[in-house]
Amino acid sequence: MPDDQSRTNSEIVQRYREKTPKSEALFAQARAIFPSGVTHDGRHLDPYGIYVDRAEGAYKWDVDGNKYIDFFGGHGALLLGHNHPKVMAAVEPALAKGTHFGANHALEVQWAQAIQALLPSAERVRFTSSGTEATLMGLRLARTFTGRHKLIRFKTHFHGWHDHMTSGYANHFDGTPAVGVLEGISDAVVLVAPNDREGVKAALAAGDIAAVILEPTGSSTGMVPTAPGFLEFLREETTKNGAILIFDEVVTGFRVAPGGAQQHYGITPDLTSLAKILAGGLPGGAIVGRKDLFDALDYAATAASGKEKIQHPGTYNANPVSAAAGIAALDHIRTSDACAVANAMGDLAREKINEVFAQEGVKWACYGTFSSFHTFLNPQNRDIDPHRFDALEIGYEELKAKPKGLSHRIRVAMLVNGVDLNGWPGGNISCMHTADDIVATAEAWRETIRMLKKEGEI
Ligand code: PLP
Fold first, then answer.
1. Residue 4 has pLDDT above 80, yes or no
2. Are strands 209-214 and 244-248 parallel, antiparallel or unpaired?
3. pLDDT digits (tens, 9 = 90+) for 219-273
4. With a 6 A CB cut-off, is 131 part of the ligand 1 pocket?
5. Which among 32, 87, 101, 318 is least surrounded, fewest beta carbons within 10 Å?
6. Model confidence over 384-395: pLDDT tens digits?
7. Is 75 a pocket residue for ligand 1 (Cβ < 6 Å)?
8. Where in the chain do CATH 3.90.1150.10 domains reside?
9. What residues does CATH 3.40.640.10 cover in the chain?
């Protein structure tokens, strides 16, 4: 069944099909196996996504041999780009030694120490297999420590797909349970609008909040930015109230600065969830933070306190190959200017893409912070100047409102023009992207706008 994104007369889609016949053939098989033919909602694209054969640095090549400048960046995991030589040099010998020991190993200790070298708040570390598991454990630690059961989340912030994190991310902003989630669980989540201080105060006042969690630079890595002073406000209010402050640094950790958003803003959360860059492009996550909270996972500490221990198995926790990649990535980030280089490319991307928007006369804006960029497609046709656009002046609903047909056609056209964007549309930049890549990306935007105009889309 075609998606509602489809337009049978689209020349853009036609050119995409002509360029990617082998991807189309693979998708025909995948469609018969996977729901919508994909293995991650973010990879869903109508008529089908590209099938990638290999990747290197800032680029990837599909099965038809087409080269793309990659801004998907492993869903944010690849601050160092694809196949960074230091990561590869660590992974290859680790693979040869064995992929799973079912036992403790030296690399897990080094990996945790590499985290501590960058995040002083990581007094204790527990590895998981993903960011979803990290936020799940963060919540459980907070509840156990405080004896309270509710969680404050901010609308549109994403923390993985477990039951507590589902309503209020992409829909169900009224807090009703998303499909498949129990009412009791959504009832334990208090959804507050981003940057809403009064909402936070009112929710904390009830005295039953175990934790407050947020993406510190804003939802989707700054698409709905966090207002200046808001993190300080949360730190102060949660400390006064006895609630646990969790920074979800699954994307921002080791990206916005070597020590993540907490280093950049100088604010210490009680717990931090990590994944993505943490494992150097391989699977892995961690929840890290205050020792007293982690006592609930410790056999001796719980025996001494007489409290029940939190159970935490997990077959792939601290996998040795992920550990090897993670150590190499974190060491490189600590000893190089990788974050600063990616951030500088972020500034350049915003500048160059906005130049093209202004020259081509579209009222869109490329914005964002650090090494992420987002496109405001201006659904209400505001009179904006892309160079002066301030996302803080726009409400979260409007920032998140993606005209579905248009954002789809932009993605497909950008693929035709050799750029793989995230569906926002936007992306994460690596330290391997060069100024030439950014200029080429801005030119791909120009061509895309012209294609959209020709098609009557804008
Ligand atoms: N938290 C944030 C901020 C994320 O962006 C993501 C994933 O994109 C997660 C948590 C979930 O991580 P994972 O996909 O590893 O489960």
1. no
2. parallel
3. 999 999 999 999 999 999 999 999 999 999 999 999 999 999 999 999 999 999 9
4. yes
5. 32
6. 999 899 999 999
7. yes
8. 11-81+338-454
9. 86-335
Q: Residue 1 pLDDT > 50, yes or no? A: no
CA–CA distance, 155 with 171 (Å, rounded to integer): 9
Confirm or reject: Cβ of 250 under 6 Å from ligand 1.
yes
CATH class of the domain whose range is 86-335: alpha beta
Q: Give φ, ψ of 172 to 5 degrees.
A: 55, 45
Token pair of 32 as six digits: 């018969």
- Output the DSSP codes for 338-402: HHHHHHHHHHHHHHHHHHHHHHHT---EEE-STTEEEEE--TT-----GGG--GGGS-HHHHH--
Per-residue pLDDT tens digits for 105-128: 999 999 999 999 999 999 999 999
Q: What is the DSSP string of 267-327?
A: ---SEEEEEGGGGTTSS-EEEEE-HHHHGGG-HHHHHHHTPPPPP---TTTT-HHHHHHHH
Cβ(222) to ligand 1 under 6 A?
no
Stated pTM of the model: 0.97
Residue 362 in tokens: 């579209």
Q: Residue 423 C-alpha to ligand 1 middle, in angstroms?
A: 16
Q: Are 121 and 160 in contact (CB under 8 A)?
A: no
Query: Hey, which of 132, 247, 319 would you mutate to test ligand 1's pocket, going by the most ligand atoms within 8 Å of its Cβ?
Result: 132
> Does 162 contact ligand 1 (Cβ within 6 A)?
no
Nearest ligand 1 atom to the CA of 249 is 3
Q: What topology does CATH give the domain 11-81+338-454? A: Aspartate Aminotransferase, domain 1 (3.90.1150)
Q: Which strand (E) or helix (H) includes residue 93?
A: helix 85-97
Residue 130 CB less than 6 A away from ligand 1:
yes
